[in-house]
Amino acid sequence: MNPPRVAILGKSRSILTWFEDTLDGFRQRGCEVAAISFQADTPAERVSQKRGEGKELHNPEIVRRSAAELAGFSPDLVVVLNKAGLSARAAEAWRLAIRPGVPMVGWLCDCLNKIPEQQIPAFDGVYYFDSHCLPVLEKFHAEHRREPWLRYLPLAVNPVRYPFQRVDPVTPRLVFAGKCSPHRHRIFGEMREAGLPLDLYGPGSGHLLRFWRNFRLSSDTIAGLYRSHLAVFNLPQPGNTENGLNLRAFEIPAAGGIGTYPDVADLSRCFEPGKEILVYKNAADLAKQFEALRLDPARAAAMIEAAHTRTLRDHTFSQRAQTILNDWLSSFRISDFLSTR
């Protein structure tokens, strides 16, 4: 039997790497993978978009090209990233492009408060990473009189991008590495007022003398910062994450850092609070926990080990790929195609 052929459709030029990491996850399970972008990639698609004919899957040229790529690849499974529904044009074109019976599923990475009116339920199943999305998805399918197949599937990490390494000693400070938006700066201020020693890195961090800290950071640089500080400050981006965990929550322990996260509904589904991650209710609570951790190096070392082990066991893109394959390609013996990488 040939290995499963999986088509992955999504935004290939996102600042996040989850499109590329999803591709790698399926490759690591032994699949033959096709990457299909639904952004404007050709002159015809860009002209159509400038004419106001639509973006992404509402653009007739993008739909035409993506359908042709699907037909040429002839997948056994189609995975669409960050879509809960499709435009009627895309739904029809893609179904005609693939063989009858081939499953087509969506996997969300951003939180949804509503689904655009132009979209219809077009997937055999939808994976959501944040429980806030569940009632939105249920309402969407009910309005179209569709019986939904919905399953919780959290985000993950590519451990190749955030390799593990121990650093001793570490800086006894908290670090944030990423885009420092005005909203986040307000929260950073609250943390510092509570006495937390917080270092900032990334665009908008506001360093005048150490200007290199303001640049966009590579994953290698970010992983190094995670390892070299006692703990990593993490907070969800409003609108993108409500009850779930962002990518950073998995990247921190993969690299060998200690993560923090607000006390949200889905957290205990992924990590054990206090043992694998510091869970805080407010700035004062986090300051208290941080100080206790600083005074207990043995506990800090145990947290690093426990969180890293949990992440590699349960939260890699390869494991997410295996879950999706097991759900939709039961006719394949997936174990026959597992990569040894």
List keywords for this structure.
single chain; 341 residues; Rossmann fold; three-stranded parallel sheet; 11 helices; 13 strands; globular
Question: Helices, strands, pairings?
Answer:
Layout: E1 5-10, H1 18-28, E2 32-37, H2 43-50, H3 60-73, E3 77-81, E4 86-87, H4 88-97, E5 104-107, E6 119-120, E7 125-128, H5 133-143, E8 150-152, E9 171-177, H6 182-193, E10 198-201, H7 219-228, E11 229-232, H8 248-255, E12 260-262, E13 278-280, H9 283-294, H10 297-314, H11 317-328
Helix pairs in contact: 1-11, 3-4, 6-9, 7-8, 8-10
Q: Strand order across the biggest sheet?
A: 2-1-3-5-7-8
In the CATH hierarchy, the architecture of the largest domain is: 3-Layer(aba) Sandwich
Tell me the name of the CATH class of the largest domain: Alpha Beta
CATH homologous superfamily of the largest domain - what is it?
Answer: Glycogen Phosphorylase B
> How many domains make up the coordinates?
2
Sketch the topology as an H/E string, one letter per element.
EHEHHEEHEEEHEEHEHEHEEHHH
Count of helical regions: 11
Using only C-alpha atoms, the radius of gyration works out to: 21 Å
CATH topology of the largest domain: Rossmann fold
> Main sheet?
6 strands, parallel
Mean pLDDT: 93
SS class: alpha/beta
Kindly report how far apart the N and C termini lie.
Answer: 21 Å
Helix content: 25-40%
Strand content: 15-25%
Q: How would you describe the shape? A: globular
Instruction: List how many beta strands DSSP finds.
Output: 13
Q: List unreliable stretches of 5+ residues.
A: none
